[in-house]
Amino acid sequence: MKLHILGICGTFMGGIAALARELGHEVEGSDTNVYPPMSTQLEALGIALRPGYSAGNLQPRPDLVVIGNALSRGNAAVEHVLNERLPFISGPQWLGEQLLGTRQVLAVAGTHGKTTTTSLLAWLLESAGLAPGFLIGGVPGNFPVSARLGSGAPFVLEADEYDTAFFDKRSKFVHYRPSIAILNNLEFDHADIFPDVAAIQRQFHHLIRIVPGNGRLIVNAEDRNLAEVLAMGCWSPVETFGIDAGDWRARLLEADGSAFEVRHCDRLIGMVDWTLLGRHNVMNALAALAAASAAGADPAALLPVFAGFGSVRRRMERIADHAGVVVYDDFAHHPTAIATTLAGLRARVGEARIVVALEPRSNSMRLGAHADQLAPALADADRVVFLQRPELPWDAGKVTAALAGRATTAADVDALLSELAAVVRAGDHVVFMSNGGFEAAPHRFAARLRGP
User: Fold this and answer.
1) Are residues 153 and 293 in the same domain?
2) Res 363: pLDDT
3) Required cofactors, per record (predicted)?
4) Segments forming the whole domain that contains residue 215
């Protein structure tokens, strides 16, 4: 079958393309952002990429068009599909129907930590000899690809609560029918499609409704919003995890989260010593370990595996260390993620200065839905340079004012880099935080440090 994928260079749709190609389909696709690393990964698989969304990209006529959720009515390719009555489907529905029905699906849901937890869970199952398939919404450190079929029964994937497509407003995860579902956390996000946290809770309950009675829910014991979701009704066994509560617990041996003890129902399992930082990553680790155990792996045997886990690209990725300045690239999209990430770094670096360059890039951040929470989230930063592009519809001045002289704004990336260069000194840790491209600001700053 010949598939044409609209939005093929997104991490999820690129994964769909790779899986379809591995299944033996002829695959091609279109996108407005055809650039590495996804473009090179897809081209290496023999997948033809066409820039833009013109109707001509769909000639000759494909057997099926897979439409990403970034596309909507008015898009030239979408209008051509509808006018010419081309068969079409969403990425999540195609995945659910063509691949997941025969697999043991392990789905990772939550506002934060989906990509890291999915990558870690796939690595644990791989290390246990279970040869999982997976679809990871990022570039994993332990695998050469972000998606593969795998030869074993398990299939691990991110279970995103964002809507499926312009013609299907259900959350993506309802298409996956997992046997094991991780509910990592739940906060208000995606202000462009959800009016409040209650609307997101309803979607999470739709996921709970399709986990079978002989399946397993792995739930954050410290999250009140998830407790309310479970109270709506639950028909599957539940195991909980947490640092302060839960069936699976951690006791921090290092304040930065780089070493911790694991217990299951008060039984000591052992100790984890790894490179990741922060309380949030300890929670991700507990969730992944509990899910791997539910899939049949021996949790005690997996603890040494954590030491070899290479995190996903752009999750506090250390990209430079020059002239006494360390530079990180972090995929920040929400105040809670910002706060927990910086808290982990603070525990690691002690009194050293932390300088943050922040781009409000997610839909919720750009809309100002989290504006009141940003200053408290940046409490561990000594200096902040906030990218306030002219098109940002809200005034970042209240954020910088709340940081009492520790923050400034910049109207563009060039001005932001100049401001950083003026304030950064030897011994500083500079964290670039954005869930967008940030115009390659982290690498441009690193190059500036190195000089000509």
Assistant:
1) yes
2) 63
3) Mg(2+)
4) 99-308
